[in-house]
Amino acid sequence: MTKVAKTKKTQAQAGAAPKKTGAARKAAAKKDAAPVAAAPVLLTPDTLPKPVMAGRDFLSNLDMTATELRAVMDTAHSMKRGEWRAVKPLAGLSIALVFEKASLRTRTTFDVGMYQLGGHAITLSNTEIGLGTRERVSDVARNLERWVDAVMGRVYLQQTLQELAQHAAVPVINGLSDMLHPAQLLADYQTIEEEFGTDLRGRCVVYIGDGNNLANSHIHMGILTGTDVTVVTPVGYEPNAGVLMDAVRAGVNITLTNDLAAVQGADVLYTDVWISMGQEAEADIRRRAFQGYQVTPEMLDSIAPDGIFLHCLPAHYGEETVPEATEHPKSRVFDQAENRLHAQKALMYHLMGDLKPRW
């Protein structure tokens, strides 16, 4: 008692701060008890991994092998741990970011990612370029290859990216097309690996909604990783037939169904917008077709107890999902968005990491 009283008197004489509330004491104790995270082991120019896709294009997830995917994912995890802070492997290099479609995550993460790796990004809207209208796509490619070391395109048609890649001598990256969204899937699978580990064989990934570019790229990732991919769509909105043939040729079974019960027990439940950019004229028809396919907290209760919910964003709340789902304890939607930065940095390194500045 005497010791406590003396301590209180000393604090009062010193003009100490008021006594902490119970909640504040608990918070302080929790902070003091929290383990201190070990500092990351920083890489050096001599310990960087070898770029596994040097100089190649990335228009589809199938443009890499399973072994190359593993290298890219390991790099993404390493970057997120902060192990690359002391190196600038793309110093002196530039990438052109070409946008036919609006963007938040793609533009920001490729731009910031290139900066963090020591390089420079230049953003070009279609108002400035006019792909296929103001200039032929082939001419745009032949110009850009003289100035920059890679091109990322977020476009309407997969054919546009194929034409850019055909005529540009530098790597071309698919930042999104009507057919595929492969860079997004790298971030998605980084998020899935954070939850379930790197061996995803047999994990149940259920995609629900429109059989669009995300559904197509999920099928490609199922081929590479061994996940069991199920695509749940209304009749008439199934994934691309050519992409399904990719699975057939690879000997991989992809489940297609219209039965919403397929989401039960899923390790990963994934959805995307019902109405993509360019489909606004179909909005009313699509909303009617997709009734019942909305991801809600009640649907999340039916997936595996340790299952997670993913959405590539932006979300059209009230359509394919609701705020209560993206903010649900099983949601990893914003971790997934964060991982766009790390996964795309890893991709750019493995495509460009052996290049030297040309100036």
Structural description of this entry:
Pathway: Amino-acid biosynthesis; L-arginine biosynthesis; L-arginine from L-ornithine and carbamoyl phosphate: step 1/3. InterPro entries: Asp/Orn_carbamoyltranf_P-bd, Asp/Orn_carbamoylTrfase, Asp/Orn_carbamoylTrfase_sf, Asp_carbamoyltransf_Asp/Orn-bd, Orn/put_carbamltrans, OTCase_ArgI. The protein is of the alpha/beta class. It folds into two domains: 61-181 and 340-352, 3-Layer(aba) Sandwich (Rossmann fold); 184-276 and 284-338, 3-Layer(aba) Sandwich (Rossmann fold). The chain is built from 14 helices and nine strands. A five-stranded parallel β-sheet has the order 7-6-5-8-9, with helices on one face. Strands 2-1-3-4 form a four-stranded parallel β-sheet, with helices on both faces. α9 links the parallel β5 and β6. The longest helix has 20 residues, at 333-352. The chain is globular, with a radius of gyration of 24 Å.
Q: If strands are numbered along the chain, what order do they take across the biggest sheet?
A: 7-6-5-8-9
CATH architectural label of the largest domain: 3-Layer(aba) Sandwich
Principal-axes geometry comes out as globular
What are the low-pLDDT stretches, counting only 5+ consecutive residues below 50? 1-23, 25-31
Tell me the name of the CATH class of the largest domain: Alpha Beta
Taking all residues together, what is the mean pLDDT?
Answer: 91
Q: Could you name the CATH homologous superfamily of the largest domain? A: Aspartate/ornithine carbamoyltransferase
Helix content: 40-55%
Order of helices and strands: HHHEHEHHEHEHEHEHEEHHEHH
Helix count from the secondary structure assignment: 14
Number of strands: 9
In CATH, the topology of the largest domain is named Rossmann fold
Q: Note the main sheet.
A: 5 strands, parallel
Strand content: 5-15%
Number of domains in the coordinates?
2
Instruction: Please identify the structural class as seen in this structure.
Output: alpha/beta
Could you tell me how far the N terminus lies from the C terminus, measured between alpha carbons in angstroms? 75 Å
Gyration radius (Cα, Å) is: 24 Å
